Amino acid sequence: MKKSLSISSANLLYLITMLLVILVGSILQMLNLSLGLIATELFLILLPAILFILVRKVPMKEGLRLNRISLPVALVSFFMGICTYLFSVLIELAMANLTGLPSVDLSQSTLPQGVWQSAFYFIGIAICAPICEEVLFRGVIQGSYEARKSAAFAITVPAVMFAFYHFRLSGLPGLLPVAFLLGYVAWRSRSIVGTILIHFGMNAAAATVSILSFSGSQLPGMLFDSMWISLAGFIVALGLLFLFIRIQPKPETVEQVIDPQSSWFKKYWSLIVAGILYAAIVGATLAAQLSGQTASKTLTFSKPSLDQAVESRYQAVDPAGSPAGEMDCLLTPEGETLTLHCSETIHAFEVQKGSSYYKETGHTAQLDIVWEASKFTVLQYHYERQYANEMSYSSDLSDGYLTTTRSDSSTATEVPDGALFDYEWLWRVNDLEVSNSLFFKPQFVNLARWDDALQESVPVVTEEVLHVQGEETLDLPAGNLKAWKVSMANQTVWYASDKEKAPRPVKFDDGMIVYSLMDD
Question: Mean pLDDT over all residues of the chain?
């Protein structure tokens, strides 16, 4: 009897389970994330692997590599998994910052709610996934490759297959070192018991952090704001890997299985199809994220943690980088409300930059906003602008309508609940809850968008993609600050990573004028 599947059979099994996860698992998880995860692992990943072993008459213990390991190796494997999580998640966060794309994009509506759903989520992620995925990848698939190929080849190909199986783009660099670690441990121990324990340690830590995050705990943020914790995890994981190598003897060389002659294409066509599927799905997901098709239309804000007024002064520069004026703002907590008053003076300028031409006649403007502090909803909104050529307009919110008054006309625009306002949104988004998504699609009230038919600028409400992007270091008049970036409607705003240092926008680009925080 065969002791492992052939490579062509192992690759075919990989493709079949991938299709099952895409076509059936995705539906199950949309219906109920927690129970869908459990069903996906048990019936779409584990069951096909066992059926393949039974149909091809491969002994279960040998085909799945269910060999014993020593207690010290088991303990080292488990703790190595926890430490590996600490630095692998740092890679994922770094990639999310670099690309502005989430490693895993889950909508708020699918997240587990309550004790039972959270418990099932933990079971699916921390127990079912390690067992089922290790059986498939390090048991059946890697066992097949090890019996016929070199150790390096047998570790590398299943590791890449495992990373692609999760259909991540920005999360791929974080998955690859984990996949190679699991492959190496399975090869050296000739068992999946150790890799199940590593996988369990990683996923149990990840599930715990996720559940705490879903419930609003501040611990996940505190944990991963520290580079030292991730660095310590990396160092300890390396030490445990070295200890594993010392206590787990190198496996004996075994005679490789010689399968009947078959073409390269016959062996690996399944992986070619799987690669095309990966590229198509990841590409479609990326396009959907960037276009906002999968973005949440519901924005949730934390209550601003201000106990005293904050005054901010901003330097304004034109597209050529020359000084163009200043803006002063005062953000004041007043009991159950939060008020903002800003006034700015912008000088006239004309700038030719490449093929673009910018012209500003000069203006003064005043912004006054009152928010309900607990939910950060707009209660009052007033904006007025006076141009040097004596043209002017003002916009006021009243009873759900924004009334814009010009010298010769008045326009009333209905404002949807929860909409963001021009010049207001950059202050509110500083307290946007972004733990579960980096893309949103809110209603946006633009005070002055050009209308070709009317040949003038008019207020308009549109749906815009709001994209929370990565962290970068800014060189501002106020000094060097680490800041995270948000873009929407051709505008970009930066917020200090340390809110206590700067609990307001530190930089804002409205598409023509750039405002930068100055020394207080």
Answer: 87
Helical segments of 374-508, H only: 425-428
Question: What's the start-to-end Cα distance of the chain, in Å?
Answer: 79
pLDDT above 60: residue 418: yes
CB atoms within 10 A of CB 61: 10
Say how far residue 443 (Cα) sits from the centre of its chain.
Answer: 22
Determine the pLDDT at residue 1: 41
All structural domains of the chain with their residue ranges: 7-251+263-275, 310-360+416-517
**Phi and psi of 381, rounded to 5°?**
-145, 130
* CA–CA dist 465, 81 (Å, integer): 37
What the block records as the tokens of 249 is 């003897």
Query: Which fold, 310-360+416-517?
Result: YmcC-like fold (2.40.360)
C-alpha–C-alpha distance, residues 325 and 71, integer Å: 70
Alpha helices for 65-113 (secondary structure H): 71-99
Block residue for tokens 């006309």? 409
Structure token digits, residue 415: 């404002």
Q: Give the span between the Cα atoms of 75 and 293, in whole angstroms.
A: 45
User: How far apart, in Å, are the Cα atoms of 468 and each of 290, 436, 486?
Assistant: 11, 11, 5
pLDDT in tens, 382-407: 999 999 888 888 999 998 999 998 87
Exposed / middle / buried, residue 480 (Cβ in 10 Å: 0-12, 13-18, 19+): exposed
Neighbours of 233 (CB within 10 A): 20
Residues 6+ apart with CB under 8 A from 109: none
Sheet arrangement for strand 420-421? 420-421, 443-451, 456-463
Does residue 465 sit in helix, strand or coil? coil
User: In terms of C-beta density within 10 A (0-12 exposed, 13-18 middle, 19 or more buried), how is residue 336 classed?
Assistant: exposed
Nearest partner of 343 among 358, 357, 329, judged by Cα: 329
User: Rounded to whole angstroms, how far apart are CA atoms 288 and 296?
Assistant: 12
Distance CA 447, CA 458 (A): 7
Distance (Å, whole) CA 68 – CA 287: 46
Instruction: Show Cβ contacts of residue 231 under 8 Å, excluding neighbours closer than 6 positions.
Output: 87
